[in-house]
Design a protein that fits this description.
- Helix 2 (about 50-60) packs parallel to helix 4 (about 95-105).
- Mean pLDDT is about 85; it is low at about 1-40.
- By secondary structure, this protein is α+β, with helices and mostly antiparallel strands.
- It is globular.
- The chain has 2 domains: about 25-105, no CATH class; about 110-230, Beta Barrel (L,D-transpeptidase catalytic domain-like).
- It is about 25% helix and about 25% strand.
- The strands form 3 sheets. A 5-stranded mixed beta sheet has the order 6-5-4-12-7, sandwiched between helices. The chain has a 4-stranded mixed beta sheet with strand order 8-9-10-11, covered by helices on one side. A 3-stranded antiparallel beta sheet has the order 1-2-3, with no helix packed on it.
- The longest helix has 14 residues, at about 25-40.
- This is L,D-TPase catalytic domain-containing protein.
- Keywords: Cell shape, Cell wall biogenesis/degradation, Peptidoglycan synthesis, Signal, Transferase.
- One of its GO terms (cellular component) is extracellular region.
- Pathway: Cell wall biogenesis; peptidoglycan biosynthesis.
């Protein structure tokens, strides 16, 4: 029986003594070895099937099979999703945080923002704790996660305009820097989160917290006078 030596697609087969030169392993065999090893390293989470379904609905994370069974392809898709939304650890386990984030994103209806037909509209869905950008009435930046005001500091619903922008704003009350600051009402605005965004119990003091890459993207699109539409209500506030 030939034995496999080496790893990945570079593996080759040793032939029995006297059988002649070594024969290369076919790509399909080598790939099967890699796939099996990858699948073995990924645990199946409590919310495996639900997460598979939500990620398939969202699209863009790879090929998933909605069967509740972890595979190498499923794991890769979940890891990609976790890295995109800053979920730690990003190891492919479909746990409660991954489930919650996927569900919120899949539940967001962009038409609910009622964005204006011309120009940029920043939309904030308080109920699902998501945010996205519309341009000329169409989705320009897909929904991403946010964290808005906690109980006692509720982020108000309504239509507003960005009225101040600074790449790094200092918050006097809370003594913390607010990167990519875009204020739209009172002391509330968009900014990069300074803590782990998935600690939802923290909430904000009324601001719309964003992941670093989203804060930068919003900054690149915003300007003084840009429209911000905040709708719904955060549960528990």
């Amino acid at each position: 029986m030939a034995a496999l030596v080496g790893g990945g697609l570079g593996a080759f087969a040793l032939t029995p003594a006297g059988a002649g030169a070594a024969a290369p392993v076919t790509t399909s065999v080598a790939t099967a070895v890699v796939t099996k090893a990858a699948a073995a390293s990924c645990a199946t989470g409590k919310y495996q099937k639900q997460v598979e379904g939500y990620l398939k609905k969202l699209g863009g994370y790879g090929t998933l099979t909605v069967d509740g069974k972890q595979s190498a392809a499923d794991c890769a898709a979940i890891v990609k999703f976790q890295k995109r939304f800053g979920i730690q650890p990003a190891k492919g386990l479909a746990g409660p945080t991954t489930y919650d984030v996927a569900k919120r994103l899949a539940s967001t209806k962009t038409s609910a923002c009622k964005a204006k037909k011309k120009g940029i509209t920043f939309c904030v869905d308080l109920k699902n704790q998501t945010t996205y950008v519309m341009k000329n009435g169409k989705v320009h930046v897909k929904p991403t996660i946010t964290r808005t005001g906690m109980k006692g500091y509720r982020t108000p619903a309504g239509t507003f305009k960005i009225n101040k922008r600074t790449k790094k704003e200092w918050s006097d009350p809370y003594e913390v820097w607010l990167p990519y600051w875009q204020r739209f009402i009172g002391g509330r605005g968009f900014h990069q989160t300074t803590t782990y965004i998935h600690d939802m119990w923290r909430g904000s003091h009324g601001c719309v917290n964003l992941l670093p890459q989203d804060a930068k993207k919003y900054w690149s699109l915003g300007k003084i006078g840009s429209t911000v539409k905040v709708y719904g209500r955060r549960p528990g506030t």
